[in-house]
Amino acid sequence: MYIIASWNINSVRIRINLLKKLIKKIEPDLLLLQEIKCSNEEFPDIFSGLDYNVVTNGQKGKYGVAILIKKKLDFKEIDIESEILNIESRTNFIFVEKLNLKVLNVYTPNGNPTENKEKFKFKLDWMNEIAKLSTACVNNFEHLLIGGDFNVLEDEKDVSNFKNWENDALGHIETRKKFREILASGLTNVIRVFDEPGKKFSYWDYQRACWERNDGLLIDHFLITPKYLSHVKNIEFETNFRGMEKPSDHIPIWINLNI
Description:
By secondary structure, the chain is α+β, with helices and mostly antiparallel strands. It has five helices and twelve strands.
């Protein structure tokens, strides 16, 4: 069994204790982190005693992603040859040898406000590059997992009142089309195998008592190629982490691979 988790932690240095709590609870073999909000040098040095290697792609003050990999798993980093994807620190890409699996950690641009056409276009162009990368892997018969914060409402039921989000960059039809293009490259959204739309949320805004009213969104996902989909035993949402002290606005999610 291998556990792969993903969490938009919304500042890793602020939530070190929550991160340790998650690691202790589920003992992930891989943990994909988004929005670490620090440079590589500022990433906290707490994992050497926890039996993990760390790959970071940080950016001071905003964005930033990282992957924690158990030391028993050999891996190599993969360079992404895309100018658009490399403008901001929003991706890690690794190959895990024992699993024969490429793992792409993503923190998709928010894209708001849509009235800012340059900003919204960047989101769409960024997602288009992810679709190209996925297509290349699938066409080469490679096994691929893309996990992270996609900042998209794939289904209208992935939020309580979709009409409030139709003109938002997360619910905009063009964003949803780009997400479907990523899936059409040959991937399956794992949550759709286990739960109907509207059953799970992964994000609750800090404003308007969204957590207390359960006014959430599902915008964090695992997308996976066919062979590995057959290995996925379950997907879990650590909803209780949103109610803890000083929480991220996202919760950790994870899948269990029966390998």
